[in-house]
Amino acid sequence: MENTVPEKNALVHQNRILKFRLTHQHLQIFLLALFIGILLSSLLPPLQSPDEPDHIKRAYLLSKGQVLLESPKEKSSGGQIDNGLLNYIEGMTRFTQDSAGRVEKQQMNETAKEKWHKTTSFSPAPGTGYYFPLIYFPQALGLAIGESLDLTINDSYRLARLLSLAVSLAIIIIATMIFPTNFLTLGLLVLPVTVLQFVSASLDGTTTAIAILSISLFMHACDKHSRHSAWASWLLGISLLLLATSRPHLLPLVAMPLIIFLFRKKRLDLILFVGIALFSLAWLFLALQNTVDLRDMRPDRSYSTGQIIFYYLKDPLAFFHVLWSTLMDPNTRDFYQKTFIGAIGWMDPNLNKLDFVFGTWFYNFSILFCIAMAALSIQWKNFRLDWIPRASLLLFSVISTLMVFFLLLATWTAHPATIITGVQGRYFLVPLMLLAYALSGSQGGIGPRRKLIGLPIFYLYSLVLCFILPAALIYRYFLQ
Predict the structure, then answer these.
(1) Distance (Å, whole) CA 289 – CA 278
(2) Angle between the 429-440 and 383-411 helix axes, to the nearest 10 degrees?
(3) Which of 37, 108, 147, 452 is most solvent-facing, going by the fewest CB within 10 Å?
């Protein structure tokens, strides 16, 4: 009789794993999200996500098999880019330089006819030099297919967008099949900034989806009664490798296999932890050594990044003093709020002016929406059993947030610093998703009672977004 309850629990979790298959509901959600994404993508002109031209260049270089960027003398790091693609980027980004610029039909049509030239010229893309290029695989595949079929560059770019969106949505669907999500995660996924990144050809959509998959695999593995196969450990390892080498502030997440090892006692998880940590650190060191960034928007500094990192490691209180000054600045807090919820178009290089913002009421409404979703995600039922993985996720969230500020302080802020520059609100998306899963714990999912409150709020916000976001895109890009 004593083993009856554990056996039943094990059977429940085993059955949940056995049901790991694509259902009609999953397929319907995927197709609906893909359809909505395609509609929004049709309203968003090409290359309007921050730094998207550089991301497209990096994806093109990956399609040609290039892993590291070139660093010619007295030039920022980059690579040999097709001249047709360079013409396309120049034509499609002319109206991004000024918030008053609008899409001109004739210019758009002429640029959209651009074909692949099969000749190349060097073009810099230094901001992407720190990322392991495999994260750009969906975009690279789209560009490669377009070039091989002799499609226009515009059609190739649209294909890259579509593949990036489809892959990201598929990863999220798979993640929810492995471990149930919660209201806060769903709320963060429908914020304007998240939606716009998903429908662009940037890497934010892919990294967000991979982060959700990693957290789902981690939470599932930390449940001792569930079946955690070797393939799940390998999938988590690959996901973390892509995250840590493309989003340096998420480097703490490489400790997930180590925590799983403490639960499962499987040597594979320990080996994966050591391998991922060593590879990630080696890649970041290699990228730092080989990436040259001479862009005008970067601060003119007489200290190297390594010297600044060593300075603040030697005196951690100096870092927290600058961090406190940054968070106490009202203009900075307002900027974080707007770039966390969403702002359309590019922004001033000095990060003191946004291109197009929503009304103040919408930002306040969005913050209240996130707070409500967080409150509905809190679960305490199994806290005594799952406090270790929950505390781990909370610790990952805090450290990742601090690393956002530390990395931008070391790489994008003049030294000595009074306020940290370069930080955008969207950088806190994954740390908040870590917090979301920490709030719900192993309970996960959405209970029937909470659905009665949470789903109407979620649908209401989504409905408002359906009116606000398309109108904002039209006003920003197409109406004088």
Answers:
(1) 16
(2) 170
(3) 452
pLDDT for 92-126, tens place per residue? 887 766 666 788 888 888 888 999 999 999 999 98
Give the count of beta carbons closer than 10 Å to the beta carbon of residue 407.
20
Measured torsion, CA atoms of residues 354, 345, 403, 291, in degrees rounded to the nearest 10? -120
Residue 139, in any domain of the structure: yes
The pair of three-digit structure tokens given for residue 145, joined into one six-digit string: 């297919």
Element of type H or E holding 344: strand 343-347
- Domain presence at residue 8: no
> Looking at the domain assignment, is residue 420 inside a domain?
yes
Q: Is residue 10 part of a domain?
A: no
- Count of positions (residues) in the chain: 480
**Residue type at 367 in one-letter notation:** I
* Closest to 312 (Cα-Cα) out of 399, 417, 428: 417
Tell me: the pLDDT tens digits for 125-162? 988 888 999 999 999 999 999 999 999 999 999 999 99
Whether the predicted model's global pTM rises above the 0.70 cut: yes
Q: How far is 5 from 28, CA to CA, in rounded Å?
A: 36
Q: What is the token pair recorded at 268?
A: 């594979």
CA atoms within 13 A on the CB side of 292: 13
- The pLDDT assigned to 7 comes to 39
Asked whether 77 and 124 are in contact (CB, 8 A), the reply is yes
3-state SS record for 213-244: HHHHHHHHHCCCCCCCCHHHHHHHHHHHHHHH
In this structure, what DSSP letter does residue 397 have?
H
Domain range holding 24? 15-290+301-477
Q: Which of 65, 181, 48 is nearest to 102 (CA)?
A: 48
